[in-house]
Amino acid sequence: MMVVLDASAVLAVLFQETGAEVVEGYLSSAIICAPNVTEVVTKLIDKDWSIDEAVSQFGALSLPIASLDDRLAIRAGALRLLTTKRGLSLGDRACLALAEREKLPAMTADRAWRNLDIGVEIRLVR
Predict the structure, then answer these.
(1) Per CATH, which fold does 3-124 belong to?
(2) pTM score, whole prediction
(3) Which of 19, 25, 34, 35 could form a disulfide with 94 if both were Cys (CB 3.0 to 4.6 A apart)?
């Protein structure tokens, strides 16, 4: 089954954190939204990875990247009303908007998503 990956799920793989093995089982059938790619690259650079290393390691995952088109952007913005108490980022909301549009589960390592009731199946990796 396909899933939409949140940045935290991808970072679990790249940093070999708890839950990495769960995400790895879905990499061949997963997609990611462009804002989540931005978050992944930013976190890698924050951890002192070079830009070349960050781009290379992310690229090695071969994840299809969905653009943040106007409809996804508006929906991600609208999700602020439903997620503000949990502190979800723009990237989180873009992931959820993509999962909602594609009718796919969203996979994350972020426990703030637990019991989120917005009509999207949430799969926690840890």
Answers:
(1) Rossmann fold (3.40.50)
(2) 0.95
(3) 35
